[in-house]
Design a protein that fits this description.
With 130 residues, the protein is an all-alpha fold. The protein contains four helices and no strands.
Length: 130
C-alpha cells in the first residue's frame, strides 16, 4: 500500500528543500531576466520561467504528499528531466539560440549540474516511497 506522506519524511525533506531553493532561484532569475533584458534572449528567458514553474509545482507536490500530489510531482519531475536533457542538448547544438544561460542550458552547468541530477533523484525517491 502506498503511503503518499512518505515523500516528505527523511531524505525527502532534503529533496523538498533543494527543489524549494531551485524554485526560488529560477523564479527570481526568470523574473529579473524578463523584466530587464527580455529582448536579448527571449527563448532563454521564457525557458527559465518554465523551469521555475516546474520547480514550484514539484516542490509543492512533494511537500503536500497526497495521492494526487504524488502524480503531480511525478509528472512535473518527468517534464523537468525531459526539459533539462532537451534544453541542455540544444544549448550545445544551437548556441546562438541561447546567448544567455538558463537553469537548464548546458545541462545545468551554471548550477553545478544539479538540474540534471535533481529530477533523477526525485524520480528515484518517488519510486522508493511508492
Amino acid at each position: 500500500m502506498t503511503d503518499p506522506a512518505a515523500t516528505k519524511h527523511g531524505p525527502g525533506r532534503i529533496l523538498i528543500a533543494v527543489y524549494g531553493v531551485f524554485a526560488l532561484a529560477a523564479t527570481a532569475r526568470a523574473g529579473v531576466q524578463i523584466a530587464t533584458k527580455f529582448s536579448d534572449a527571449p527563448i532563454a528567458y521564457l525557458l527559465s520561467a518554465v523551469a521555475a514553474i516546474i520547480y514550484c509545482a514539484a516542490t509543492y507536490a512533494l511537500a503536500k504528499a497526497t495521492k494526487v500530489s504524488r502524480k503531480v510531482a511525478t509528472t512535473a519531475i518527468v517534464i523537468e528531466l525531459i526539459g533539462v536533457i532537451t534544453i541542455g542538448a540544444f544549448s550545445y547544438a544551437v548556441p546562438d539560440d541561447f546567448p544567455d544561460a538558463t537553469v537548464w542550458s548546458h545541462f545545468g552547468q551554471g548550477y553545478g549540474f544539479v538540474p540534471v541530477v535533481l529530477p533523477v533523484l526525485g524520480l528515484l525517491w518517488l519510486r522508493r516511497t511508492r
